[in-house]
Write a structure and sequence with these properties.
166 residues; alpha/beta; OB fold (Dihydrolipoamide Acetyltransferase, E2P); 28% strand
Length: 166
């Protein structure tokens, strides 16, 4: 009987150990599955971050516009532009902002050093290239450039990347 109890105790210990081993395999399998899922999640996050970085880089470093080669979206004189802003300034700003505009006007001020020109006392044109020396005040010109907006403080329109239109 003693031997039977000892054998039974050994058998129960053996069964207990077998159960523990099986349970540990289950835990190991769960751990491995969890570990694989963590790796997949980490790779997914890494791929998403790289994709987002590429998209942001492409957005920030877009090709720059060449206004001198673009076709003008609008062609008008300074008084016509002023009339549009007098009628409805927010609508006119939405219409003309960042658009290529062709303006016919008279030069009222000129700064050859800084490549600046004021047209009809109302529009400040900033040129990309130097203004030719033969351009004089009171001369009628046609200028093409990007419209930047209206400055209420100094009561003038602004354009940059200007060039002389043909």
């Amino acid at each position: 009987m003693i031997y039977d109890k000892k054998i039974l105790a050994v058998f129960e210990t053996y069964n207990f150990c077998q159960n523990q081993i099986q349970n540990s395999h289950v835990h190991i399998n769960r751990f491995l599955k969890c570990s694989i899922m963590k790796k997949k999640l980490q790779y997914g996050i890494l791929i998403s971050a790289v994709t987002l970085a590429v998209i942001l880089y492409c957005y920030v470093y877009q090709n720059h516009r060449n206004i001198s080669q673009e076709k003008a979206a609008y062609s008008m004189s300074v008084p016509e532009l002023e009339k549009e802003f007098t009628a409805n300034d927010s609508l006119a700003l939405a219409k003309f902002l960042d658009q290529t505009i062709r303006i016919m006007a008279t030069i009222t001020a000129l700064d050859h050093q800084n490549n600046l020109m004021v047209l009809n006392h109302k529009l400040l044109a900033i040129f990309t290239d130097s203004i030719p020396k033969n351009i004089k005040i009171n001369q009628k010109v046609t200028v093409k450039g990007r419209f930047l907006g209206y400055d209420e403080l100094v009561d003038e329109f602004k354009m940059d990347q200007c060039s002389f239109a043909d």
